[in-house]
Amino acid sequence: MTESPIEVRCAIAGGGPAGMMLGLLLARAGVDVVVLEKHADFLRDFRGDTIHPSTLELVHELGLLDEFLRLPHQEVRVLNAQVGEFKLPFADFSRLPTRCKFIAIMPQWDFLNFLAERAARYPGFRLRMRAEVTELIEDAGRVVGLRARTPDGPLEVRADLVIGADGRGSVVRDRAGLHVTELGAPMDVLWFRLSHRPGDPEETTGRFDPGRIFVMINRGEHWQCGFVVPKGSTDEIHRRGLSAFQAEVARIAPFTADRVGELADWEAVKLLTVRVDRLPRWYRPGLLCIGDAAHAMSPVGGIGINLAVQDAVAAANLLAAPLRAGELTADHLRRVQQRRELPTRITQRLQVLVQNRIISRVLGRAGPLRPPLALRLFARVPALRRIPARLVGIGIRPEHVRTPAAGRDGEAA
Ligand SMILES: Cc1cc2nc3c(=O)[nH]c(=O)nc-3n(C[C@H](O)[C@H](O)[C@H](O)COP(=O)(O)OP(=O)(O)OC[C@H]3O[C@@H](n4cnc5c(N)ncnc54)[C@H](O)[C@@H]3O)c2cc1C
Q1: Measured in whole angstroms, how far is the alpha carbon of residue 122 from the centre of its chain?
Q2: What whole-number distance in Å separates Cα of residue 237 and Cα of residue 247?
Q3: Does 46 contact ligand 1 (Cβ within 6 A)?
Q4: What's the pTM?
């Protein structure tokens, strides 16, 4: 079986935050677009549930904020670090110049379903689930489409532009011969859930303990827990056994002692191998990578989703008009990289600084821990907490929706 070929202006590989946001914005601007997502739905393992103030601002600019905030979510207004007995607030979102002065914590699949449903209102939008991109189609050195595997047979898509939004293991990037530069990370993260019970603390907190960092995100009915460990130490943790791991969690966060048994086997504990990398060049004629496919971010600050969304907005702003007019050149693609490369580089540099100055030291320490100087300063001088709040909540060079919504005839209004 072979499916009939599709012809579109833009084919997007990957229905994550970057691909879905770009699909919505292009369709809204009257560009014919198809998003190909290899999974059957958006329900996945935990991959980050944070919707940052700058992303909420974009949702507002799209006129969708009220609907969006009706979806179940939690609101985090202050970020705290717990070092031994000391609770140190270090980021306060309440003074941000954005409509929403909080991080909304919402399952990523709710966010993606929301984008998919809103995008489906535009006639130029198509979403193909269970379509796994396997190859690029090239003509005289230019990417002119892609091939995907679907349950109904191979699918060929011809497009003026192929977007690689297929995440940090990007197939599109690989097939295009684009290679990332690794920046390195000293840690991996073990993610798992524990139930949230009456009487628990309410705050989302990062707990620092000699040799360990333990993040607990309050998700209402449960805690999403991230256990940060030295890179490559997971085999050793497995060798020591699950009960030793449970005991360690209970030691760092004593109120969890009555429920660490919920971790029935290692299946409940998912390893995130942390990678920080970026492409020196994000594009080739006919092809552009965005989001994690262009730059995998460190989990420091939890900003991967936000950066992916920001890339999508910048790409839509710069590419919608030439795509609609059928006049796209490699120079348009270069401008997207030019716009987003600086925020990516600065953010990764700051993340690597935190990794080397704070995370490595905490993970490498056996004796008692003193709060790092930066955390002590933020705790002592409340005004300083606006700096990490701004970096985490808004980021460098925030984007705004500049693409006009198309009129009924598909022409830009
Ligand atoms: C365990 C974990 C925790 C995280 N926590 C946070 C957090 O708290 N906050 C935060 O901001 N970020 C977090 N991140 C990072 C965040 O998930 C990413 O930065 C963000 O999702 C990047 O978006 P993206 O659209 O570029 O890529 P992805 O979200 O990776 O989306 C890529 C999509 O492409 C699809 N795909 C892949 N290959 C193909 C193919 N060949 N054909 C078709 N489709 C394909 C995938 O199924 C996926 O849906 C976390 C990541 C992990 C793994």
Answers
A1: 25
A2: 12
A3: yes
A4: 0.95
